[in-house]
Design a protein that fits this description.
- The structure holds 3 protein chains of 3 kinds.
- Helix content of chain A is 24%, strand content 16%.
- Chain A has 27 helices and 34 strands.
- Chain A has a 7-stranded mixed sheet, covered by helices on one side.
- Chain B is mainly alpha-helical.
- Chain B has one domain: Formate dehydrogenase/DMSO reductase domain (Formate dehydrogenase/DMSO reductase fold).
- Chain B has 11 helices and 1 strand.
- The mean pLDDT of chain B is 93.
- Chain C is α+β, with helices and mostly antiparallel strands.
- In chain C, the strands form 5 sheets. In chain C, strands 10-1-11 form a 3-stranded mixed sheet.
- Chain C is elongated, with a radius of gyration of 24 Å.
- The N and C termini of chain C lie far apart (64 Å).
- Classes of the chains: A alpha/beta, B mainly alpha, C alpha+beta.
- Chains A and C meet through α1, β3, α2, α7 and α8 of A and α1, β2, β3, β5 and α4 of C.
- β15 of chain A pairs antiparallel with β12 of chain C.
- The structure holds ligand MGD (2 copies), iron/sulfur cluster (5 copies) and molybdenum atom.
- One iron/sulfur cluster (SF4) binds next to α2 and α7 of chain A.
C-alpha cells in the first residue's frame, strides 16, 4: 500500500480495498490507452519513463519502476512533460533570417527542409574543402556527445566541444587524473551501505532522482549526512549537519581534514600503499628537468623503495615491500622522496591546521577537527566486510571486500570555481586517506569507469581539408607535447582549449567561443553551429556584451561571426540571433541513444544504456537533429557514413546506430548485440537491436557478477572484462595518482625546465608554476585575487532549482507556477545590517557590470554570500511568454555580472593579455568566483529588474499562447453522491 | 479574508431587512408605536422584505455555479448556510400571509388571528435567518476572529438596530410620532455599538494556531522561506487581503463615527425634536457604516491558511 | 478503512515532484480538468491539490530548513463537509476519502473557508470546488498492478517521503510509521483530527569521533612512519 515493502497486516486492507473497488466506476478506459517506455529528457538525469498515451495525447508520465536510474520515481520536471509537449514556444519549421534584416532583430522567414539543408550542405562543403576549422560546432545541454564528436571528427574540425567546459570539467578531470573515475555522473556513493555521507556543493546535480533516493536510504539507516554548502535549501535542508562554508574555500577544508587525519595517524595505510602512488619515489633534483618526476626504471616502471631489499624496485611488481616514507638515494646518485613523505610534509604544515583553515573557510576549528574524526571513526571503527572471493591484479586471492563506509559527492559548488580542479583533487585525497574509493560503503565507479589515469586518448591537433581527424577533438593530455598549440605556442582551437592558458581543458571552453571568434583571436571562423545551447542568454558569461558581439560587424559591414546555425526545439533567446534555425523534435517524438560511449547511465553494480523511441508523432515540420546529422554526414561524404561509391551508407539515424561500430563488436548500444541478439556488451551489429530495446522497456542493464563489483581498479577479473568490452585499452591495474606527474611536467615547463615545449608567455609561465602543484592545494580563486574585497564584499553564486531545468522550463505552464521570478537571497542579519529590507530592490554590481534585482532575506545563507536560482530570468517575448512575464520583468540573470575574462590586474597597462575567467588547469568556467557589492535601489527604480531587452517578436507560424488551459485527455468520470446520502448523513 | 462586495451587500441589506421586519412586527404586536396601524406596518414590512430580497439575491452573485443553488436546501442537518437558506425561503410565504392579513386589516385596524400568528412566525424566521447568517461565520474554527458567540450577537444587534432606524425613517415619512422609535433606535445603537466594541477588544488579542503548531516544531521561531508558487493562488486571493494595518484602524473609527455615533446623535436629536429629514440621513449613514463594518469583518478575519504563508 | 497519507519531513527536500505529479494525474482525473489561469502570462497560477512550502526554523547559524507538502488531510472531523449546504462535499463511509461531487457543488466557497489546511481550491472555469481525491481513481483501479494502485504523489516522490495506507489497520505501513516515528497532525488544536500525519525530522544520528588517533610529537611520528611498509 505504499512504496515501502508491504508489511504484515497490509493485506487486510488490501482485501478491504478490493471490495470497495467493486463499487467504483471505471475511471480510465484502458482500451483506449497505450503505454510506451522511453527515457525522460526533461533533464540530463535520463530516468526511465512509462508514458500512457490516449488520443495521441499524453495521459500520464510515470517513472519506470524497473529502470535502474530512477526506480519508478520521477521529479517535478519529469512530471511536467505534458506541458513541455504543449509548449507554445515549440519551433514549427526551419527558419532563415529575413534577407535584408539585421541579425538579432528577430525577423525570420520559413523555409523548406530541403532548401535549408541544401544551403547548409553547400556552406559546410566549402569549409570542409578549404579550412575545416572554420566550422565550430558546440553543443550545450545535450547528451549525445559521442555522436556530435564523431561527426566533428569526420568533418575534420578540431573546433568541437560540448558543454562540459562551462559545466563541470573540473570534476571529470580531477577524477580522471586522480582516481580513474569521478563524481559528476561517473561514480556514486554506495547508498546501500554507506554510514557517513558528505555532500559538497550540490543543489541538484545530474543524478537528480538517484541522489534523492539515496538520501532517503541513508537517513533511514541512521547514517550521518553532512552538507558543506553556503546555502541551506533542498538536500542541505534534510542534512543532519550543515557546514556553511565560504565559497571557493573547500580545498582548504578538505586539506585541513587531511591534516587532522595525518596528525593523528588515522590513515588507511594499506589502501594508500597498495592502490595509489603514495610509495612511489619522486626525484628531488631542484633546477633540473627531472625534478619532481617519478623515478622510473629503464622500462619506465615507477620505482619504490623496497624495504626488504634495501633498494629501489619496480613499484608495479607484486610483493614489493614498499616504504611509504623516507628520502632515498637512487643508484645513480639522485635523491628521491616518497610521494607520501611529500604529502605528509605538505599537509602537516601549519597552514592547513584547523585554526588556519577555519579563518579561510569561515568555520570554526573544532568543527573541522570533529568532522574529520567522525569520518575516521566510521572508516576505521565501523568497517564493513563483504564475504566474496576475488582476485587482485597480481593474481592474489582474497576472501572478502573490506569497506570503509564513508562516502562523498560533490559538484558545481566545487567545480565552478577557478580552483575547482585542485579542490576536487583535495576531496579525492581525503577519500583515499580514508580508503573509500570503490569499496563497499564508499564512492563507487560506474561503467565504463574506472579507467586508466588518464584515459589514453590525446586531443586531435592536425587537420587537413576533406579529411577526418585522426583522433577525437577532445582527449587527455599528459605532457606539454600533447597541447593543441602551434610551433609558436599559440592556441589552435577557437576556444583555446589545450593551450598554455588551459592545458588540461578536457571538455573545451565553450564559454569562450563567441568572444574569441568575434575577436578573431586566435582566428576568425565562418560558421558556428550551436545545438541545444542558449548561448545568447543563460549559458554564456557576460550576456549583454556577448549579444552585442553576435551583432558586431567588420569594416566591410560583414558580421564578424559570419554564419550562425541554431539547432533548437524551442523559441529561445539564441534562436533569435540565428541565421538559420533548424527545429528539433521533442524528447517524446524521437529516437535517441543514451550510450556507454557517451555519458553513461550505468549503476555501480551494472553497466547500463538506454534509448528513446517516439511516443508521439510531431504535428509540425520538424526533424530530429540526430537524423539531420546522419543526413548531412551522408551529403558531405564523411568516410564513416558513405560506402565505397560515396553513397550514404545509412538509411537514417536508427540504422546508423544499429550498424556502426567503433571497434569490432562495439557500437553505441551495448544491449542485444550479435546477429541473434544474444551477446551483451560486445558482438556484431544486430538488425533487431532497437526492437529488443523497445521490448525491454527502453533500457539495457548488464549486471556485474559480485566479485567484480568492488576494488575494480585492481580487480583482475573486472579489468580483464573491461578490456574485453572495450572500456579500457589494457588490463593493467589502475594506480591512483595522489601525486600528479602530469601536473609536474607542466610546472616544469612553467619553470623553463621541461625537456620539450615551453610556454612563450610570462603570464602562462607564472600560472603553471603557481597552480600546477602535483599535490592538491588551496589557492584563492583567480577573480578574488584581483578584486578588492572591501569594494566587493559578497560572493555571488547560483543554485539549480529542483523543478526547473536551466532556461528551458520557463515555457512549462506547470513549472512556472512554482517559480516565475528569481530573487537575490541574502543572510537576514547581514542584509538588515546594511539597511536592506526583505523584498526590497537592490543593485548588485561586479567588476563587469550591474543588475537590479529583488532581495529575499533568509537564515540559511552564509553571511558573506548571496545567491539566486539559475536561469529563471528571460528575455521579454522569448519562450512563448507574455512580454510582461515576471521572468522578463522581475527575474534576472547573474550572467551579466560574470565576465568571461578576468579583471585586469591593478595598475597593469592596457595591452595586458586578457585571460579567460576559468580554472587555469582545465579551463572550467569559473561562474561562482563572482564577487559583488550590494546597494539599495531608489524607490522609483523598484519593481522591475535591470537590464531589460527588447521584446522578441513571435516567430512566423507561431501559435499564440492561450490565456487559460484545461488540459485533459478524456471526459472525467465523476463520482457522485446520492441525494439520499445527502439528506440522511450528517457528514 | 477577501471582502466580496456581494457578501457585504447581502449581509447588510438582508440584516437590515430582517431586522426591520422583526422590529416592526414586534412593535406593532406590542402596540408601542402610536399611529402605526396595519397600513403603515404593511409599508414597513414590504420595505423590509425588499431589503431582505435584495440581500438574498446578491448573495447568489458570489456563487461560482449558481445553477446548483437550489441544492442548498438539503443539508439542514449540518450546514448553517443551508439552514439560513431554508429559513429565508420559509420566511416568504409566511410574511406574505402576514402582509395579506395587514392588507385586509388596513381599514378595520385589527388583524385576524392567522395574521397575528403569521407575524409571530415570520418574525421568528427572520430572527433565525439572521442568527444563521451569524452562525455561518461563528461556526468556522478556521477563523478565530469569527469563531465566537459575539458574532451572531453582533449580527442580530446590528440587524435589529439598523432595522429600527429604518423603521424610524419609514415612520417619519408617514408622519408618525417618532419618540418611541428614535428612543429605541438610540438605545439599540448604543447596545450594538458596545457589543461591537466588545468584539473589537476580543479580536485584539492574538489567537489561533501558529506555524509551530502547524508543523509540530515548538523549539524555535519559524519563518516562511518559499511559498512554492510564483503568483497568488485561490488560497491567497480568497483568504488574505492586502489592506494596510493603518487603513484598518482608520476604518474602525469610520465604523464608529458613521455607523454608530452620528446616527445615535441624530436619533437623539429626533427624539427631542422629531425633525423628519434626520432619519433619512441616519439611515444612509448607518448603512454606509455597516458596509464598512462588514468589510472590516472580513478584512480583519485571519484565516489560518495564512499561517502557512507566514502571515 | 481510514485511508490517508504519511509525509516524512525528515526526507522531504521540497522538490515539488508530488505537486506536479498530482497535477498531471488529476487534470485528466475524476475531478479534472484542473484549470490553469494565465499560464504563459504575468500571473501564472492554477488549481492545485497539493502544494509544498519551505520554512526556516530558528536563526543563522542554528537554522534548519523544513519543507512541508500539504494536500487534503481527509480529516475525521471534516468541517468542510458539515458546512457544505448542497451536500456536494462528502466524506466516504467506506474509506474516509473526502470528495466533492462536481455535479452538485454551487461554488459558494464555504467549505474552503472551513478547511484549515488550504486543501480546497475553487476552479473558476467549472465554478466548482476541487480538492485532493486521494487519487481515488488510481487506488481502486483494479486494472493497475497492485504496486501502481497508489496516489500519484506517493508513487513519484523521489525521497520516498510519502506513504499511503489504511490508518484503521494497526499493522499497516502508515500506522507503524506514525507509531515508530511519533507522527503528528498539523494544528491538532483545531480538532479536525486530520488523517494525514507528518513524521517530524529525526533526531541527529549519534556520530562518535575516533578517539584512538593520539597526537604525538611529529618527530616521533615520523620515526614510526619511516618503518611503514606496504606490500604492493
Ligand atoms: N533541476 C535541475 N537539475 C539540473 C540542472 C538544472 O538546471 N535543473 N542542471 C544540470 C547541470 S547542467 C548541472 S552542471 C548540474 C549541476 O548540479 P549542482 O552541482 O547541484 O549545481 P548547482 O545548482 O550549481 O549547485 C551548486 C551548489 O553548490 C553550492 N556552492 C556554491 N559555491 C560553493 C562552494 O564554494 N563550496 C561549496 N561547498 N558549495 C558551493 C551552491 O550553494 C549550490 O548549492 O545539475 C544538473 N541538474
Ligand atoms: N550564471 C550561471 N550560468 C550558468 C550556470 C550557472 O550555474 N550559473 N550553469 C552553466 C552550466 S553547468 C550549464 S550546463 C549551462 C547550460 O546551458 P545550456 O546548455 O544553454 O542549457 P539550456 O538553457 O537548458 O538549454 C539549451 C537549449 O536547448 C534547447 N532544447 C531543449 N530541448 C531540446 C531538444 O530536445 N532539442 C534541441 N535541439 N534543443 C533543445 C532549449 O530550448 C535551449 O535553448 O548553463 C551554464 N550557465
Ligand atoms: S531527473 Fe527528472 S527531468 Fe531528469 S530525467 Fe529524471 S525524471 Fe526526467
Ligand atoms: S515529492 Fe517528496 S520530496 Fe519532493 S516535495 Fe513532495 S514530498 Fe517532498
Ligand atoms: S483537509 Fe480540509 S478539505 Fe480536507 S478533509 Fe480536512 S477540512 Fe476537509
Ligand atoms: S463550494 Fe461546493 S462543495 Fe464547497 S461548500 Fe459550497 S457547495 Fe459545498
Ligand atoms: S493523493 Fe492524489 S490527489 Fe491527493 S495530493 Fe496526492 S496525487 Fe494529489
Ligand atoms: Mo552543467
Amino acid at each position: 500500500m505504499s512504496n515501502r515493502k508491504s508489511r504484515p497486516g497490509v493485506s487486510e486492507s488490501a482485501t478491504a480495498m478490493a471490495a470497495v473497488a467493486k463499487t467504483m466506476p471505471p475511471f480510465e478506459d484502458h482500451s483506449q490507452q497505450e503505454k510506451h517506455y522511453t527515457t525522460c529528457y526533461m533533464c540530463a538525469c535520463r530516468c526511465g519513463i512509462e508514458v500512457t498515451v490516449e488520443n495521441n495525447q499524453v495521459r500520464f508520465i510515470r517513472g519506470n519502476p524497473n529502470h535502474p536510474v530512477n526506480q519508478g520515481v520521477l521529479c517535478a520536471k519529469g512530471n511536467a512533460g505534458i506541458m513541455k509537449q504543449n509548449s507554445p514556444a515549440k519551433l514549427r519549421k526551419p527558419l532563415m533570417r529575413k534577407p535584408g534584416t539585421e541579425r538579432g532583430a528577430g525577423e525570420f522567414v520559413e523555409v523548406e527542409w530541403d532548401d535549408a539543408l541544401a544551403l547548409l550542405t553547400e556552406r559546410l562543403r566549402h569549409i570542409r574543402e578549404t579550412d575545416p576549422k572554420k566550422l565550430a560546432f558546440f553543443t550545450g545541454r545535450d547528451q549525445m556527445q559521442a555522436l556530435t564528436g564523431l561527426w566533428a571528427q569526420q568533418f575534420g574540425t578540431i573546433n568541437w566541444a560540448a558543454h562540459g567546459g562551462f559545466c563541470s570539467v573540473n570534476m571529470a578531470a580531477a577524477g580522471l587524473y586522480t582516481i580513474g573515475q569521478s563524481f559528476w555522473e561517473f561514480g556514486d556513493p554506495d547508498w546501500e551501505r554507506t554510514k557517513y555521507f558528505m555532500l559538497w556543493g550540490v543543489a541538484e546535480d545530474h543524478a537528480s532522482n538517484p541522489i534523492k533516493l539515496g538520501i532517503e536510504k541513508i537517513k533511514k539507516r541512521g547514517a550521518k549526512f553532512v552538507a558543506v554548502n553556503p546555502v541551506r535549501t533542498g538536500y542541505q535542508a534534510v542534512a543532519d549537519e550543515w557546514v556553511p562554508i565560504k565559497p571557493g574555500t573547500d580545498a582548504m577544508l578538505a586539506l585541513s581534514m587531511c591534516h587532522v587525519l595525518l596528525s593523528r595517524d588515522l590513515i588507511d595505510w594499506g589502501f594508500l600503499g597498495r592502490y595509489t602512488n603514495a610509495p612511489f619515489l619522486v626525484i628531488d633534483h631542484p633546477g633540473h628537468s627531472d625534478n619532481g618526476l617519478i623515478a622510473r626504471d629503464a622500462d619506465g616502471n615507477p620505482l619504490v623503495w623496497d624495504q626488504g631489499k634495501g633498494a629501489p624496485t619496480n613499484g608495479m611488481m607484486p610483493g614489493a615491500e614498499a616504504s611509504l616514507f623516507g628520502d632515498y638515494t637512487l643508484p645513480d646518485g639522485r635523491q628521491t622522496k616518497t610521494v607520501m613523505s611529500l604529502i605528509a610534509e605538505q599537509y602537516l604544515d601549519e597552514r592547513y591546521a584547523p585554526e588556519k583553515a577555519a579563518e579561510v573557510c569561515g568555520l570554526d576549528a573544532d568543527t573541522i577537527e570533529r568532522l574529520a574524526l567522525e569520518m575516521a571513526h566510521v572508516a576505521f571503527r565501523e568497517t564493513i566486510e563483504i564475504e566474496c572471493e576475488w582476485t587482485d591484479w597480481a593474481g592474489r586471492n582474497h576472501d572478502r571486500f573490506i569497506g570503509r563506509p564513508v562516502s562523498m559527492h560533490a559538484m558545481r559548488g566545487i567545480s565552478a570555481h577557478s580552483n575547482g580542479f585542485q579542490t576536487c583533487r583535495a576531496l579525492h585525497l581525503l577519500q583515499v586517506f580514508l580508503g573509500t574509493i570503490d569499496v563497499p560503503g564508499g564512492h563507487r565507479a560506474k561503467a565504463p569507469f574506472p579507467r586508466h589515469i588518464p584515459p589514453p586518448v590525446k586531443p586531435a591537433r592536425e587537420m587537413a581539408p576533406n579529411t577526418p581527424l585522426k583522433s577525437p577533438p577532445l582527449g587527455f593530455p599528459t605532457a606539454p607535447e600533447d597541447l593543441v598549440v602551434d610551433d609558436q605556442g599559440k592556441p589552435l582551437r577557437i576556444d583555446k582549449a589545450y593551450s598554455w592558458e588551459a592545458p588540461i581543458a578536457n571538455h573545451g571552453l565553450m564559454h569562450m567561443v563567441i568572444t574569441n571568434a568575434v575577436n578573431g583571436d586566435p582566428y576568425p571562423i565562418d560558421t558556428l553551429i550551436l545545438f541545444m545551447a542558449n548561448m545568447a542568454w543563460n549559458s554564456t558569461m557576460n550576456t549583454s556584451q556577448v549579444r552585442d558581439m553576435l551583432r558586431e560587424k567588420d569594416d566591410n559591414g560583414d558580421y564578424k561571426l559570419p554564419f550562425l546555425v541554431v539547432v533548437d526545439a524551442f523559441h529561445s533567446e539564441t534562436v533569435n540571433f540565428a541565421d538559420l534555425v533548424l527545429p528539433d523534435t521533442t524528447y517524446l517524438e524521437r529516437y535517441d541513444t543514451i550510450s556507454m560511449l557517451d555519458r553513461p547511465i550505468s549503476e555501480p553494480d551494472s553497466a547500463c544504456d538506454a534509448i528513446r523511441s517516439p511516443v508521439l508523432t510531431p504535428d509540425r515540420d520538424v526533424r530530429a537533429w540526430q537524423e539531420v546529422m546522419v543526413d548531412l554526414a551522408g551529403r558531405l561524404g564523411f568516410p564513416a557514413f558513405v560506402d565505397d561509391d560515396g553513397k550514404p551508407k545509412y538509411k537514417g539515424y536508427t540504422d546508423f546506430i544499429a550498424r556502426w561500430e567503433k571497434a569490432p563488436g562495439i557500437g553505441f548500444l551495448a544491449g542485444w548485440r550479435g546477429k541473434a541478439g544474444d551477446k551483451p556488451m560486445r558482438g556484431e551489429p544486430n538488425e533487431k537491436q532497437w526492437d529488443k530495446y523497445i521490448e525491454h522497456q527502453g533500457f539495457f542493464q548488464h549486471h556485474l557478477p559480485e566479485h567484480m563489483r568492488f576494488y575494480r581498479h585492481v580487480n583482475k577479473d573486472y579489468l580483464a572484462w573491461a578490456k574485453e568490452v572495450g572500456f579500457n585499452a589494457s588490463e593493467a591495474p589502475i594506480i591512483m595518482e595522489l601525486y600528479s606527474e602530469v601536473l609536474q611536467k607542466f610546472r616544469l615547463a612553467g619553470q623553463g625546465l621541461y625537456d620539450g615545449p615551453l610556454p612563450p608567455d610570462e603570464i602562462d609561465k607564472a600560472r603553471l608554476v603557481k597552480y600546477f602543484d602535483p599535490l592538491p592545494h588551496y589557492y584563492q580563486p583567480l577573480e578574488e585575487q584581483r578584486i578588492d574585497p572591501q569594494m566587493y564584499p559578497f560572493h555571488a553564486i547560483n543554485q539549480r532549482p529542483m523543478h526547473m531545468y536551466h532556461s528551458w522550463d520557463s515555457q512549462n505552464a506547470w513549472l512556472r507556477q512554482i517559480t516565475a521570478q528569481n530573487f537575490l537571497f541574502m543572510n537576514r542579519a547581514r542584509g538588515e545590517s546594511l539597511g536592506i529590507a526583505d523584498e526590497s530592490w537592490v543593485w548588485v554590481e561586479s567588476h563587469n557590470g550591474r543588475v537590479r534585482v529583488q532581495v529575499k532575506l533568509m537564515e540559511g545563507c552564509q553571511a558573506d554570500t548571496v545567491w539566486t536560482w539559475n536561469a529563471i530570468g528571460k528575455q521579454s517575448g522569448a519562450w512563448g511568454l507574455d512580454k510582461d512575464a515576471p521572468e522578463a520583468r522581475k527575474g534576472f540573470l547573474m550572467n551579466h555580472l560574470i565576465s568571461e575574462l578576468l579583471p585586469k590586474m591593478d595598475g597593469n597597462d592596457d595591452d595586458e593579455r586578457r585571460l579567460t575567467n576559468s580554472d587555469p588547469i582545465t579551463g572550467q568556467a569559473a561562474w561562482y568566483d563572482l564577487k559583488v557589492k550590494i546597494t539599495p535601489a531608489s524607490a522609483d527604480e523598484a519593481g522591475t529588474s535591470w537590464p531589460q531587452f527588447d521584446t522578441l517578436q513571435p516567430l512566423p507560424g507561431a501559435r499564440p499562447s492561450p490565456d487559460q488551459l484545461r488540459y485533459s485527455t478524456h471526459e472525467p468520470v465523476r463520482l457522485k453522491r446520492s441525494l439520499m446520502d445527502i439528506i440522511m448523513r450528517r457528514s | 479574508m477577501h471582502p466580496a462586495v456581494s457578501v457585504i451587500l447581502f449581509t447588510v441589506s438582508s440584516g437590515a431587512g430582517f431586522g426591520l421586519i422583526l422590529m416592526t412586527i414586534a412593535l406593532s404586536l406590542m402596540g408601542w408605536v402610536p399611529g402605526m396601524g396595519p397600513g403603515q406596518t404593511l409599508v414597513a414590512i414590504f420595505t423590509g422584505s425588499v431589503l431582505a430580497t435584495i440581500g438574498l439575491l446578491s448573495s447568489t452573485a458570489h456563487l461560482a455555479n449558481p445553477k446548483n443553488a437550489w441544492r442548498a436546501f438539503f443539508r439542514f442537518r449540518s450546514s448553517w448556510l443551508s439552514r439560513e437558506g431554508i429559513f429565508a425561503v420559509l420566511f416568504y410565504p409566511v410574511i406574505l400571509v402576514y402582509m395579506i392579513g395587514l392588507w385586509l386589516a388596513r381599514d378595520s385596524g385589527s388583524l385576524p388571528w392567522w395574521g397575528l400568528l403569521s407575524g409571530l412566525v415570520a418574525s421568528l424566521l427572520a430572527l433565525a435567518t439572521v442568527f444563521c447568517t451569524g452562525m455561518i461565520y461563528a461556526s468556522l474554527r478556521t477563523i478565530p476572529q469569527w469563531n465566537s458567540a459575539l458574532v451572531p450577537a453582533n449580527y442580530l444587534l446590528l440587524a435589529i438596530s439598523s432595522g429600527t432606524v429604518i423603521l424610524t425613517l419609514i415612520a417619519a415619512l408617514q408622519g408618525i410620532e417618532l419618540t418611541v422609535l428614535s428612543g429605541l433606535s438610540l438605545v439599540l445603537l448604543v447596545i450594538a455599538g458596545l457589543a461591537k466594541l466588545l468584539y473589537y477588544i476580543w479580536i485584539g488579542k492574538p489567537q489561533g494556531p501558529t506555524l509551530n503548531t502547524a508543523m509540530g516544531i515548538t523549539r524555535a521561531k519559524i519563518k516562511i522561506l518559499e511559498s512554492g508558487q510564483s503568483s497568488r493562488s485561490f488560497l491567497n486571493k480568497e483568504f488574505s487581503n492586502q489592506v494596510p494595518a493603518k487603513t484598518v484602524k482608520r476604518m474602525r473609527w469610520m465604523v464608529y463615527l458613521v455607523g454608530f455615533v452620528i446616527p445615535a446623535v441624530l436619533m437623539l436629536v429626533v427624539f427631542q425634536t422629531s425633525l423628519t429629514v434626520l432619519p433619512l440621513l441616519a439611515v444612509l449613514l448607518l448603512l454606509a457604516g455597516l458596509a464598512i463594518e462588514r468589510w472590516l469583518f472580513f478584512v480583519e478575519a485571519r484565516h489560518v491558511v495564512n499561517v502557512f504563508y507566514g502571515q | 478503512m481510514k485511508l490517508g497519507l504519511v509525509i516524512d519531513l525528515d526526507t522531504c527536500v521540497g522538490c515539488h515532484a508530488c505537486v506536479v505529479s498530482c497535477k498531471q494525474w488529476n487534470t485528466s482525473g475524476t475531478l479534472g480538468a484542473l484549470t490553469d489561469y494565465d499560464p504563459y502570462g504575468k500571473e501564472p497560477n492554477g488549481v492545485a491539490f497539493n502544494r509544498v512550502r519551505s520554512y526556516e526554523v530558528d536563526e543563522y547559524p542554528n537554522n534548519k530548513t523544513v519543507n512541508m507538502p500539504m494536500s487534503c488531510m481527509h480529516c475525521e472531523t471534516a468541517e468542510c463537509v458539515t458546512v457544505c449546504p448542497t451536500g456536494a462535499s462528502f466524506k466516504r463511509e467506506e474509506d474516509g476519502i473526502v470528495l466533492v461531487d462536481q455535479d452538485k457543488c454551487m461554488g459558494c466557497n464555504l467549505c474552503s473557508w472551513a478547511c484549515p489546511y488550504g486543501a480546497r481550491e475553487l476552479d473558476q472555469a467549472s465554478g466548482t470546488m476541487k480538492k485532493c481525491t486521494l487519487c481515488v481513481d488510481r487506488i481502486y483501479d483494479m486494472e493497475l498492478s497492485e504496486a501502481e494502485r497508489q496516489p500519484a504523489c506517493v508513487l513519484t516522490c523521489p525521497t520516498r517521503a510519502r506513504h499511503f495506507g489504511d490508518f484503521d489497520d494497526p499493522d499497516s505501513n502508515v500506522s507503524v510509521l506514525v507509531r515508530e516515528r511519533n507522527g503528528l497532525q498539523s494544528m491538532p488544536e483545531l480538532g479536525y483530527n486530520p488523517v494525514n500525519h507528518y513524521l517530524p525530522p529525526r533526531p541527529k544520528p549519534n556520530a562518535p569521533i575516533h578517539d584512538g588517533g593520539q597526537l604525538e610529537p611529529l618527530t616521533d611520528r615520523f620515526k614510526k612512519w619511516l618503518n611503514k611498509v606496504v606490500v604492493r
